[in-house]
Specification:
Radius of gyration: 25 Å
Order of helices and strands: HEEEEE
Strand order of the largest sheet: 1-2-3-4-5
Largest sheet: 5 strands, antiparallel
Number of helices: 1
Shape: rod-shaped
Oligomer: single chain
């Protein structure tokens, strides 16, 4: 009798394990990417709601909205909202478009940054009348 003890894996067993891992990765990767896209979109929507709230505070005090997303927040219309110009994760660029002067209305836009995972996801907007859109569809 041969009393040799087998240690380790054979090449066939290793290749089967690699194939199984590749199949599982191929199935789960699109779901992961979709989840990350939705997560970043949700964070951008939350940021838009936060900025719209700041706009309403400014309007209460100044009877006018601010037109700057990046100027320092001072609670007045001549200030801004104090953002960096992007969402916290850097995947959306934030801008404010005044609809009339004096600024009695506003439209805050979050545009996906080109080259990020959000590229092609669609523009998010919130307006002073409460309308919220993602690529033209309410969110």
């Amino acid at each position: 009798m041969n009393s040799h003890k087998r240690n380790g894996f054979t090449l066939i067993e290793l290749m089967i394990a690699v194939a199984i891992i590749a199949i599982l990765t191929g199935i789960s990767w699109p779901t992961y990417v979709s989840y990350m896209t939705r997560s970043s979109r949700s964070a951008a929507q939350t940021k838009l709601l936060e900025l719209a709230g700041l706009q309403e505070k400014i309007y209460q005090d100044a009877n006018s909205y601010t037109v700057s997303a990046t100027a320092a927040y001072n609670g007045r219309a001549d200030g801004g909202l104090g953002t960096t110009g992007n969402t916290d994760d850097g995947k959306y660029a934030l801008t404010i478009t005044p609809n009339a002067l004096p600024t009695q209305t506003f439209l805050i836009t979050a545009t996906p940054v080109v080259g990020s995972t959000q590229d092609g996801d669609g523009i998010l907007t919130i307006s002073s009348n409460g309308t919220r859109l993602h690529a033209g569809v309410p969110w």
